[in-house]
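Q: Sequence in, structure out?
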Amino acid sequence: MNGRIESAFIPVLLYRVSCIVATAIVAMIGVFSVAVHAHAENAAKSDRVDTKYGWFDVEGVSLWFNKRFSKAELHTYAPEDFAVEQHLCNCNDKPKPHYPYMLIFFSTPEGDLVGRPERRGFDTVIIPLAVRHGQRYCNLDAEDQCYGSFSDPCDFSDFRYGKQLAPYFPYCKANNAEPS
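A: Exactly. Output:
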């Protein structure tokens, strides 16, 4: 093999990496759930949750929720009115490949917060990116300024970050082919 990964092993490697990432997302969603309940119980506490592997910081998410909903309004909703979903975009997406990107959606009755998890040392931070209303993705601070409508969440990440990701994944969009 001479220090190179044989092309036959790449799908197996990608599958294993995606399994690890999916497991990490499930763990982060569980921690987020604990963080939201802890934050709701005591607003004076920090927006950081201490985990075995570092901090999970949801400050950006908490700020958005606090700006979007009053405490009284939050109490009118049931827990099932809120949900968390994740999307893993990658070059192997069918029928259309996307640049590798992870998105997390915090769904609410007033629109969905679109964010991305980001590691900072041992900490995981959720970076808010946009607000989604149906298929329309808008600016966080000025929701009348929208990026456009996207039927696939990965089309949104390609639109916003594709130019920055393209140099790192030059073969991702080129008929999904690898160099020979």
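Residues 29 and 84 are 7 Å apart (CA to CA).
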